[in-house]
Amino acid sequence: MDTQKAHWSKNAAVYEIYPMSFKDSNGDGYGDLAGILEKIDHLNGSENSLGIDAVWICPFFKSPMRDWGYDVTDYTDINPMFGDMKTFEKLVEEFHARGIKIIIDYVGNHTSDQHEWFKESRSSRKNKKRDWYIWHDGITVNGERLPPNNWVSIFGGSVWEYDKHTDQYYLHTFLKEQPDLNWHNPEVREAMGQVIDFWVKKGVDGLRIDAFYNFIEDKLLRDDTINPTYANPHDGSYWTLKHNHSLATTANLGVVADFTKEALARHPNLLIVAEAYVSPQDMHAFHELIDNERFTVFNFTILGRQFKVSVYKPLIDEYLLGTPDNSDPTKRPGPKFLPNFTLGNHDMSRLVSQIGEAQARVAVFLQFMLPGLKFIYYGDEIGMTDTHIPEENIRDWAARLIFKQQKSRDPERTPMQWDDSEYAGFSSHKPWLPINDNYKTVNVAHNDRDPKSMLSLYKSLIRFYHGHDFLHSSQYVPRDSVSENVFSFELININTPGKRFIVYANFGDTIERELLPEDASSPTIIFCTSDRTSTHGLPKYLELLPYEGYVLEI
Ligand code: GLC
């Protein structure tokens, strides 16, 4: 048995805070760092807290806020609208005192076009920072000057922006105000490495690497392949192409993979979670490359999927079982693998809006029973839903540019609903985005009074998760179920051989009966998502009401 103490991230429930929308402390309509501190009791350290282990705070660095902070002008300074360094230091101190780890966003793919680095780079072809970004003359076809290739920005249009001043194009994967850094340049890597060191010194415990697989592009700038399955091949959107050259693969990530490994080696307690919307197979390829159990690629596989066992199960099986295991010492060891499950974030429609409230309860139950890090998006713990924002009021600039092609991200970014007072207790001022109409009942205070609320479910799941060792050190073994609506798997505790736990989740709106294993002599329910007291059919079978989840010890 491994006698080394497991890294905190192996057993962590992480809570994502979108700082603009969590709590406004100074009445300007925007959330801030002092607001986050004010709400520390909600997170952990008091009897009634959620009990989360870590927070991931989205960007709070200096920025013109073109992409709401994902366009940084100074990586080591705080945007005054969020507070100052002193407040951040206080936040670190108080969060650590309550055992809450801090993960920050690391927006390394690009800077703002207002960053001093880009201003210098743009100033002249001879500037010493010219090569910190990706510049190109473009190509001439039939006498016409064109961008170097067909790559499309995630936010629409070509990734190449022509810059008259020096008569060249620069590359931007996102907005034209977000020029991509050139990670092939060692000076860029050196400068960006210093950014990591700076924040670790300040006490930061983890990094969420933004747009990880966008860091490196094909050096030859070859055209991306047309996506033959996309329905609107001529709409010019990101989805018209397959991105086989504009996105990094494990084959060309080279210097970035080394950079990541070096950062993990320099900082032996640092966790790195990388953003990449890729298949389980590709996630494992990244895990193999970096091969460190403090590194994981965000697992978005079930996020936004149809709520069906036949959709979830193959994805979860492939994710958890698709990596070689280390149990056979005669085999080449598999990569170190820190699994994670994510059900929502600031770029995706809210969980309840996607699959429904009863269904969301089942998904969250599964998230806590499956191995690995759990990412919870602020507000999901009270069942917040997307807020309709009329097109003319959209604040997500990317969506305004390409509204027809990409859904706005404002609906999932509206202010946290704390209580039923004006502006939902978020602010004393009209907030930057409207409060959802449902705030009178969908709010923390209201949820707190109701033992059947989403918040109560989250709290009991987090407490159950913390209180049961088998949820931290088990092997996932898929099981067949009688009903196609029931997702079932077994957890075999590695530390206590012989102990077996079976998880059942009913994805459907009908009552289901699941047969228990024949050797289950005295099956005991140790967790149930509802407070049902009627017969469950034990010990012969387990009866599940619609959308119920159970854990049985057998
Ligand atoms: C990531 C962020 C998203 C941002 C983009 C550009 O995908 O999650 O919010 O717009 O990167 O930085």
Question: How do the strands and helices of this protein lay out in sequence?
Answer:
Blueprint lengths: L12 E5 L15 H6 L1 H4 L10 E4 L3 E2 L11 E5 L6 H13 L3 E6 L9 H8 L11 E2 L2 E3 L2 E3 L13 E4 L4 E4 L14 H16 L4 E4 L44 H13 L4 E4 L5 H11 L4 E3 L11 H13 L18 E3 L8 H5 L1 H13 L3 E5 L19 H5 L42 H6 L4 H14 L6 E5 L7 E8 L6 E7 L5 E4 L8 E5 L12 E4 L4 E5 L1
Parallel strand pairs: 1-2, 1-15, 2-5, 5-11, 11-12, 12-13, 14-15
Antiparallel strand pairs: 3-4, 6-10, 7-8, 9-10, 16-17, 17-18, 18-22, 19-21, 20-22
Helix pairs in contact: 10-13
The structure holds alpha-D-glucopyranose.
Short description:
This protein has 554 residues and is α/β, with parallel strands linked by helices.
Question: Can you walk me through this structure?
Answer:
The protein is an alpha/beta fold and 554 residues long. Helix content is 23%, strand content 17%. The chain has 13 helices and 22 strands. An 8-stranded parallel β-sheet has the order 13-12-11-5-2-1-15-14. The protein has a 5-stranded antiparallel β-sheet with strand order 16-17-18-22-20, with helices on one face. Strand 9 and strand 10 form a beta hairpin. Helix 10 packs parallel to helix 13. The protein is globular, with a radius of gyration of 24 Å. Bound molecules: alpha-D-glucopyranose (GLC). The site of alpha-D-glucopyranose (GLC) has 9 residues, from loops.
